[in-house]
Amino acid sequence: MMQKKIKKILLIFPPVVFSRESPKQIMPPLGISYLAAYLGSEYEVKLLDAALAGYHSERRLDTQFRVYGLKKEEIKKKIQEFSPDVVGVSCLYSSQFYQVQDVCAAAKELSRDIITVIGGTHPTFLGAECMKFADIDFIVLGEGEKTFHKLLCCLNQNEDCGTIDGLIFRKDGKIVTNPKTDWIDNLDELPFPARRKLPLNEYFRINLPMGLLARRTPAMNIITSRGCPFKCSFCSSSRFWGGKYRGRSAENVLDEMAHLKKDLGVRELKFFDDNLTYLPARAREIFQGMIGRNFKFSWNTPNGIDIHTLDEEIIRLMKQSGCYELTLAIESGDEKVLKNIIKKPFDLAKIAETARIIKRNGIDTYGFFIIGFPGETKRQIQNTLNFIDRLGLDRISLFIANPLPGTEIYDVCLKKGYLRTGAPSYFDYFNSRIQTEEFDSEYLLMLRHKYYWNYNLKLFLRNPLKFIRKYSIFIKRPLFLAKMLYAKLFIPGLKR
After folding, report:
1. N or C end of the chain: which has fewer CB within 10 A?
2. What are the backbone angles phi and psi of residue 361, rounded to the nearest 5°?
3. What pLDDT was estimated at residue 39?
4. Cis peptide leading into 218, omega within 30 of 0?
5. CB 310 within 8 A of CB 281
6. Three-state SS for 449?
7. Could you tell me which residue, 287 or 96, shows the higher pLDDT?
8. How far apart are CA 450 and CA 273, in angstroms?
9. pLDDT score at 474
10. What is 209-489's CATH superfamily?
11. DSSP code per residue over 202-267
12. How far is the C-alpha of 470 from the C-alpha of 111, rounded, in Å?
C-alpha cells in the first residue's frame, strides 16, 4: 500500500448528528488530542475539529435529525491543503458513522495513496460492518494510542501489520480482526492532550460545553481515568476500555490542572470520567490537592458520577475544591429494573440520603434517568417518575433507552426483534428505536414530553430566582433559546 514514508498525519473529529431536541454542545475532542500528543515529535500531526469549524453550518438529514460541521467538500479542501499521508477519523457516536464515511471518501477522492484509519466506539463494536466500505483501510479498536503508533511504524517499515493488537484490516481481500487485549496500565505515561493544536478560543467563545452550563469561562474538559468496572446493560464504555478501571495518579492529574490554569487560562473544569470517584481515596487526594494548590477552579461532572461512592467527607472536599454541581447517574427509580435489567444494584434509600447531603453542602444536583428498557413495564417506568419527584433534584435529564452497539440491551433487542422496522438510521436518547410487548415509541415520547415540562415548571415555581440564574446563559442567546424551546415544545418523531 505504501509508496512513501509517512510524515504527515491529519486527525479529524467529524461533523456531529443531533436531533431536534438535542441542543448543540461543543468541547475539545480529547481522543484525537491524546493521539496527537502520543505521536509526539515523530510525525507532523494536525488536528481538525470539523464540528467546531462548521459549528454554525447546519443541514437537515431527515424530519428529526440535523448535522452541524464542515461539509464534505470543505473537509476535502482541508485535507488537500495539508496533504497528509494518513487521515485518522474519530467516530465517538454511532450516528456519526455516515459522516466518517464521507471524510474517508473525501481523502480517497484526493488520492488513493492516503491511508484512512478510523477508531471510536462504533467501529470498535461493529468493525466488520464498517470495513465493508472500501474507503476505510484500518480500524483501531478501543484505546488507540499504542495500536495506532504500531500501525504507523509497520507501514513506514513495510512490515506485516498482521500481529498488531486491536486492529482490523484487509488481507488477500478478506477482513482480519485482531482482538484488543493490550492496554496502557500506567496512564501517567501518557502526555497531556495536545490541546494547543486546536483553536481553543473558539470553544471558549461559543461556551456551550457538555451539559450546557458553565459558571465561568474559559471551561475545559479533563479526564483523570479510563474505564469502569461495572457492566451496566445500556453502556458500551466499560467494554470499550477493557472492562476495567485505570486511574491516573493524583499528582499527574494535578499537574495537568496546573498546566490548564497557568498556560491556557482555564477557570472551570468539566470532568469527563466514567467513574471519577470509583477509588474514593484517590478522589480525595485529587480534591485535597486542588485545595492545597489554590487552583480556585469551579467544576462539575457532566458525564455523571457514581453516587454510591460519595460520603459526607468527600462531598465537603468537592465543595471546597470548587464543585458546584454533581450529575448523579441514577438511571431508574425501580430497584428491580436497576438490579435485573440495568445490572446496577443501587439502594434507592441511600441515593435519596446522599442527594440530601449533597444539597446540604451547597452543591446542585443533576440527575440522569432512563425509561423504556427492554423488559421494563409501564408500572416500573412510573416508579422512576415517582422517585424523581421525591428526590427533588435541581435539574434532570430524562432519556429514552436506545440499544447502542456493544451493549447487552443491543443484543437483547436483536434477539427478541425489538428494533422497530423503519426506525431512523440516526438515533439519540430522545427518540425510541425499540418496541416491546409492554410499550411502543409513541407511548414513551408522549410520557417523557409531558413529564419533562411538568417537572421544569415545578422547578421554576419552587425557586424562580435560582432557576433564572441557572439558565441565564440562554437568556443572552435568544436565537439558541428559541430553537431549543421550539424543539422541546413539539414532540419529535411522533406520527401526525
Report:
1. C
2. -90, 10
3. 94
4. yes
5. no
6. helix
7. 287
8. 32
9. 61
10. tm_1862 like domain (3.80.30.20)
11. HHHHH---TTS--SSSSEEEE--EE--S---TT--HHHHTTSS-EE--HHHHHHHHHHHHHHH---
12. 50
The three grid cell numbers given for residue 397, joined into one nine-digit string:
435529564
Does an H or E element contain 431, and which?
none
Neighbouring residues of 222: CB distance < 8 A, sequence distance ≥ 6: 253, 256, 257, 260, 269, 270, 271, 272
pLDDT, mean over the chain = 89
Grouping H, G, I as helix, E, B as strand and the rest as coil, residue 56 is coil
Residues 341-347: what's their mean pLDDT?
86
Report the pLDDT value the prediction gives residue 433, as an integer from 0 to 100.
77
Confidence (pTM): 0.90
- In this prediction, residue 421 has a pLDDT band, given cuts at 50, 70 and 90, of low
Domain made up of 8-178: CATH architecture? 3-Layer(aba) Sandwich (3.40)
The neighbour count for residue 426, using CB atoms within 10 Å, is 22
Angle 143-147-150 (CA atoms, 0-180°, nearest 5)?
160
Write out the three cell numbers for 282. Answer: 484517590
Q: Which residue has the cell 414530553?
A: 449
CA dihedral 37, 42, 43, 47 (to 10 degrees): 0
* Structural domain boundaries in the chain: 8-178, 209-489
Pick the closest to residue 17 from 64, 79, 77 (CA basis).
Answer: 64
Q: Is the pLDDT of residue 452 over 50?
A: yes
- What is the C-alpha separation between 329 and 52, in angstroms, rounded? 28
Cβ-contact 430, 483 below 8 angstroms: no
Cα(374)–Cα(361) distance, integer angstroms: 37
pLDDT of residue 495: 47
Q: What is the rounded average pLDDT of the residues 392-412?
A: 88
Please answer whether residues 429 and 445 qualify as being in contact, where contact means their C-beta atoms are separated by less than 8 angstroms. Answer: no
Determine phi and psi for 117, rounding to 5 degrees: -130, 135
Q: Is the pLDDT at 490 greater than 60, yes or no? A: no
Please state, in angstroms and rounded to a whole number, the distance separating the CA atoms of residues 129 and 253. 37
With H, G, I as helix, E, B as strand and everything else as coil, classify residue 441. Answer: helix
Q: Identify the residue whose cell numbers are 479498536.
A: 141
* Cross-strand pairs, 44: 8
Sign of CA dihedral 20, 25, 28, 31: negative
Asked if 305 and 283 count as a contact pair (C-beta separation under 8 A), the reply is no
Q: Is residue 190 predicted with pLDDT exceeding 90?
A: yes
Same fold yes or no, 8-178 and 209-489 = no
